[in-house]
Amino acid sequence: MFGTRRREFITLLGCGAAWPLAAAAQPRATPVIGFLSYGSPQDATHLVEAFREGLSKAGFVEGQNVTVEYRWARGQGDRLPALAAELASIPVAVFVTTGGEGAALAAKGANPAIPIAFVIGRDPVKLGLVASYSRPGGNATGINITINSLEPKRLEILHDLVPLASTIGALLGTHFQKAPYDEELREFRGAARALNLQVQELYVGTDAEIDLAFETAQQRRIPALMVFAGFEWQRDKLVALAAGHMMPAMYHFREYPVAGGLVSYGVDTRDAHRQIAVYAAAILNGKKPAELPILKPTKYELVINLKTAKSLGLDVPPFMLSRADELIE
Question: Are residues 26 and 113 located together in one domain of the fold?
Fold first, then answer.
């Protein structure tokens, strides 16, 4: 029961794999996809595998009738524009961007004539990537995995796991100190007030600052921590620090509790990468991004690592056990 994680996206297009494959079968030069990610290859093996599965189902097999050029920023957002420019110079037929909006914006800046299929966690309309969800209107489309809208729910779940906590720490990248991320932060603060929780915000931008943030949380006797998005390339480090400091922590993605973290609530990112591959294939087959509506998830998964909960001395409430999509023991 708990091992089943079937996730669906609203496609508004019927079956995403139903686009004709005839175009892919016609004699032509092998197209090149530029895969641009904020993350690191060692942290995204499963996502690349899912992406390749999506391509294959849509009629494209890497190394046979399509080439994929991968570029990884390894958590250094300032590298994205140069990496995007490098891909644009190949040139690539379509950009696929993952790991956040920074990659999508970099691709758009590198060459606005190259179509973009993105996976992002924030509103692409507010970011200026598209005109609307149903009619993107430009040269970009993709999936919004709605990271920012889930912070209140994640906070509620963490509070249920650590009910005696009156203060919650928030681990944030320094980019949250400016728009458009400040809106997400306001929603989180409002949710904390509704639960009568104090919030201590810990801003980090380097490895050393992440270490210091956990030391600070321990010194201030902060009993639990919300880890915001943007640290996926530091997943193992964050999980190890939380364990070493005996810190219950809430994360965005299933990969964290699988690695030993306590709990996550969010979308199945593997499904998102399969679907974005289908969109990339559609573009290679002649579809215009403006014709492909922005997708949003219709279901989210709660994953709890029971072994970690036990090591932290936490009793997972029965109602949470019954609601969980996956329990790791």
Answer: yes
